[in-house]
Structures
1.
Amino acid sequence: MTEHRERWVRFHSLPESQRYATNDAERRTILDRHYTVLDELFGGRDVYIMTSTWSNTVEPERRSRLDLRVNPGSALWWSFLSEDDPDPDFVVHTHVYVSWTSWSVGSLDRLLSAVAEDRTANAVIADRRLLRMYHPYDGGADVLAVDTAERDALRERHADWLSKRPSGM
């Protein structure tokens, strides 16, 4: 995120930067924090939901049931070579799937829970113009706001969710 540092902020999903939930209350906290920021970014808007799979071939392999459940109705948007290696067993192609939906709190429970439990990764929620992006990961979310003012307002409203590290990581 160094190229967009002036628009970037990272929020942690649980207090004290705890990475994984150990009970239902913590699982609810994770979803509540995600939905709070997502609603501030995308409330009343349509959003893209992007997820990725990987394969050793240009053609995507059959998608897992989990991937189909976390991004239902998605279609292959883009495939690209992400890891080149002389050994064909280590060549990796990334396949990005995208869907379009009207944003609402609760609509991404499967996706956000799967990410929080490290069962899937590389999900991105974005507005139509790709100006605002929300990238959840197992432990929090990276946000690209429209500008520094929006980023700073988010940081101020959710200061308790920020990393204590100077880098913000």
2.
Amino acid sequence: MVTNAFGQAVGDEVPGWEPRPWPEPVTITGRYVELRPLSSAQYADLHAATCGPDDGDLWTYRPIPRPTTLAELWMHLAAHLDDPALVTFALVPLEGERAGRATGLASYTRIEPGHGQVEVAGVLLGKALQRTRAATEAIHLLMAHAFDELGYRRFEWKCDSLNEPSRRAALRLGFVEEGRFRNHMVTQGRNRDTDWFSVTDAEWPAVRAAHQRWLDPANFDDAGVQRTSLAARR
């Protein structure tokens, strides 16, 4: 335990700490997916991928219900571009039935350069992207960009406590569960308790290595089915 001159416990020093850069809307390319800065040119593809008659469940835990028209989605996404607190990316798979077309979304938010912390939020995966290696790689790329290129110290994931697929995804990806904020939000007129997860810079090297082992092409058969799970790789 570290104590100060007054005998009080204090945190460890962070040698040479300086505020980190604000994330820029850059293109980030992986093996299976490319993250492109969100633009209105992608709205039609996103509408087709996430707003069909059978896609209502994709919007249950989002701020708004499923947009039924391109105009409604346009207004929703335009607000992302107008919000200076968000850096939003379209997720464009490089393989599969929707290769080259925007099929999902994710944003950096709660960006605090002075403390080196950032959150991934608003993750929306069209059904063609769900449970694919491209979806896993998309989150990996966002984490790698924040930790390895921008030098952040903490990467957060939050979700509605009732959103079990999101909870499972966080744990699968190596996030540590930190707790629950009760009565945290009102979403679509309903109470939301929010579960918090994080990965720190000290944990990131092991998490990164597990992701890289899982994402290696040798871990998949010719049909793209995993040979070993990510949990096993960790």
